[in-house]
Write a structure and sequence with these properties.
With 400 residues, the protein is an alpha/beta fold. It is 40% helix and 14% strand. α13 (349-355) links the parallel β10 and β11. The radius of gyration is 21 Å and the shape is globular.
């Protein structure tokens, strides 16, 4: 992404020199310039927004679709479903496509009370009671804090607001990671989860397609120098400019598509290309440098463990031991259902296979051979492959 400004400049120069006018542009989608509430309202869905304050002071933006478009008023009981996005993403994941292909809308229309979370540092959760997002202190977090502070605060709020003792949790990628950590280390929190649906679950990243391990020490130092221990990919007006002013030119559309898929996969067939401007306006989301370093540590160690402060004194201060503790996934007893992809370069099939025997209450696993990492929420056939199965399980569970 560091090269995107250069690419944009060249795109602008070439486009201007070749006289590309409005007739050469792909029609824009209005949602490309909307926030989350505006997008939901645009499609006619009722929505609510709440601010949640974690124990360490981060203010998280939590969104709710209480019911579908055809449902009037509130029913005495609606299954509560909480959706947690992954790395470099936000709650936008679940409303990115047209209503029939967006999980949040599909669940709401099926009679669910849908909640959409935003991890600290994302556009909708970039606030703190005392720290400024311009400070290094604000960005001193990784998925450890998301599991130990964000998720407990969010679930506690939803349970109190809905007055229901349990909810269904669905997480994609890092969203599943923090669930495995949180539900295995906080037994009382786990008791509030009726079922855990994991899409492209990431626990081990031993086989993820990444640069050679010997490069990580160099990359870590470079990232610290360039981004000053703050954030990578901090989403700003540049994303929107690139998506709505440049990528909708026919001559550059293919390049933007290639850039978008470079991180998530290479199969264009399952993507609604007409919504590329909407996707690019919301991707990538901000990632703290500390979180990136944490993932690099996991790739090197091959184990799921807490962040290594790379100083015995600091590790002792945080964990009362010089080596970061390992997270024991086998301690999580929540009923679990997983969906994984055969072409996923992040939640690699080999890593998923190594995870499965460690899940104490695994009820179901489905591998979709041609799915990459993003197909689980953006794929045009995701309703048939994943969404309807989730709904079927929820409805069956309500009858028992």
């Amino acid at each position: 992404m560091w090269s995107l400004p250069v690419i944009a400049c060249w795109m602008l120069i070439i486009g201007t020199q070749n006289g590309y006018s409005l007739k050469n542009r792909i029609p824009k989608n209005p949602e490309a310039t909307m926030n989350l509430s505006q997008i939901m309202s645009y499609w006619g869905y009722p929505n609510e927004q709440y601010d949640i304050v974690t124990k360490d002071g981060y203010i998280l933006g939590l969104y709710r679709i209480p019911h579908g478009k055809e449902c009037l008023g509130t029913a005495p009981y609606r299954p509560v479903v909480y959706l947690q996005h992954g790395l470099s993403a936000s709650a936008f994941n679940w409303i990115a496509n047209l209503p029939p292909n967006s999980l949040a809308y599909v669940l709401a229309d099926a009679g669910c009370d849908v909640w959409l979370g935003n991890s600290r540092g994302t556009t909708w959760s970039q606030r703190h009671v005392s720290l400024s997002p311009d400070s290094e202190e604000f960005w001193a977090f990784s998925f450890d804090e998301m599991a130990n502070y964000d998720l407990p605060a969010t679930i506690d709020f939803i349970v109190k607001k809905t007055r229901q003792k349990q909810l269904y949790f669905l997480g994609h990628s890092q969203g599943a990671t923090i669930a495995f950590i949180s539900f295995s280390t906080h037994p009382k929190l786990a008791q509030r989860i009726k079922m855990f649906f994991g899409l492209a679950p990431v626990v081990s990243v031993k086989h993820t397609k990444s640069p050679p391990k010997k490069l990580f020490a160099f990359l870590e130092s470079l990232i610290k120098v360039l981004f000053h221990r703050k954030a990578l990919f901090s989403k700003d007006k540049f994303n929107r400019f690139l998506a709505t002013k440049m990528c909708n030119l026919w001559i550059f559309h293919w390049l933007c598509k290639h850039i978008f898929f470079a991180t998530y996969g290479s199969d264009y067939r399952n993507l609604n290309e007409s919504r590329l401007d909407v996707y690019l306006s919301n991707y990538p989301e901000a990632i703290s440098v500390q979180n990136m370093i944490h993932w690099a540590q996991l790739i090197i160690s091959g184990q799921l463990q807490a962040f290594d402060w790379e100083d015995p004194t600091l590790n002792m201060e945080h964990y009362n031991q010089v080596i970061p503790p390992l997270y024991n996934v086998t301690l999580m007893m929540v009923p679990t259902l997983l969906w994984s992809g055969g072409e996923d370069t992040i939640a690699d099939p080999l890593d998923v296979d190594s995870l499965l025997p460690n899940i104490s209450n695994l009820m179901y696993h489905k591998r979709i051979p041609y799915y990459n990492h993003m197909d689980f929420y953006l794929g045009m056939d995701a309703p048939q492959q994943v969404f309807y199965e989730v709904i079927k399980v929820i409805k069956k569970n309500m009858q028992t």
